[in-house]
């Protein structure tokens, strides 16, 4: 904070402000280059993590469904055993009926329990088909899960290798950038960061190249080129909004 206040209190020449901004830009551009080197790997790793978690949840849900189907099938098997016992009992009672009314009643009970067994067997077959279908889905999901895990392992190794190679370099650049920021007044630094954020290539300040803006390459009027060369005030490109600096100041 003290360093920032000191910068604000001092009257720093515009040329020095521009040079500090350009130095900061060079550090940030190098950091951007390192990030580009890593490419889409961090996002790919995150996506693979999400995919693996999703597949794990899907397999878990399938396994819950399998357990439920197994319980349902066992209940139906229990019903069949109960109906079998009843049919045997009713069949034995048929030998001792005293009249046609009792015979009809027992016959209907036997018919009802027989239908119950047939219905239970039908349910068991349906459950068996569902179990087969779910097991196939689990097999497919497990295969995909292994593929994703293998892919994730390779992507993480690739990313770790790149990070280990560039981590020290990036940390040094960030320290230099942070130190340089303390030499730039708050308002100018804020404007620079806003311009940089909106710029497609992350360039907030660019040198003049062959009479054109080094960011958007639109031609700059001669008088404005002269003002930029003198370095007496902050001038931005009327087309892209980037701050411009004379190429001789950055050579």
Give a structural overview:
The chain is mostly helical and 251 residues long. It contains six helices and three strands. A three-stranded mixed sheet has the order 2-1-3. Helix 2 packs antiparallel against helix 4. The protein is rod-shaped, with a radius of gyration of 39 Å. About 2% of the residues have low confidence.
Q: Name the poorly predicted regions.
A: 5-9
CATH level-four homologous superfamily name of the largest domain: Helix Hairpins
Number of strands: 3
Amount of beta strand? under 5%
- Overall tally of structural domains: 2
Assign the CATH class of the largest domain: Mainly Alpha
How many distinct helices? 6
Can you list the strand order of the major beta sheet? 2-1-3
- CATH structural architecture of the largest domain: Orthogonal Bundle
Terminus-to-terminus distance: 31 Å
Overall spatial form:
rod-shaped
Portion of residues within helices = over 70%
Supply Rg. Answer: 39 Å
Biggest sheet layout: 3 strands, mixed
Quickly list its features.
single chain, 251 residues, Helix Hairpins, mainly alpha, three-stranded mixed beta sheet, rod-shaped, 2 domains
């Amino acid at each position: 904070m003290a360093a920032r206040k000191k910068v604000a209190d001092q009257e720093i020449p515009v040329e020095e402000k521009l040079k500090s901004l350009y130095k900061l830009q060079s550090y940030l551009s190098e950091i951007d280059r390192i990030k580009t080197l890593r490419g889409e790997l961090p996002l790919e790793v995150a996506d693979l993590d999400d995919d693996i978690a999703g597949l794990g949840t899907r397999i878990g849900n399938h396994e819950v469904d399998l357990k439920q189907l197994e319980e349902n099938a066992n209940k139906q098997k229990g019903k069949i055993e109960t109906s079998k016992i009843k049919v045997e009992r009713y069949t034995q009672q048929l030998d001792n009926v005293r009249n046609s009314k009792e015979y009809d009643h027992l016959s209907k009970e036997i018919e009802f329990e027989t239908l119950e067994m047939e219905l239970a067997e039908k349910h068991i077959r349906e459950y068996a088909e569902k179990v087969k279908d779910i097991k196939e889905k689990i097999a497919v999901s497990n295969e995909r899960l292994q593929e994703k895990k293998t892919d994730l392992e390779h992507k993480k190794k690739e990313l770790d290798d790149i990070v280990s190679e560039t981590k020290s370099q990036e940390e040094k650049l960030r320290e230099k950038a942070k130190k340089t920021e303390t030499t730039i007044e708050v308002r100018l630094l804020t404007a620079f960061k806003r311009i940089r954020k909106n710029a497609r290539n992350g360039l907030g300040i660019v040198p003049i190249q062959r009479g054109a803006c080094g960011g958007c390459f639109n031609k700059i009027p001669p008088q404005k080129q002269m003002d930029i060369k003198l370095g007496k005030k902050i001038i931005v490109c009327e087309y892209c909004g980037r701050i411009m600096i004379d190429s001789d100041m950055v050579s």
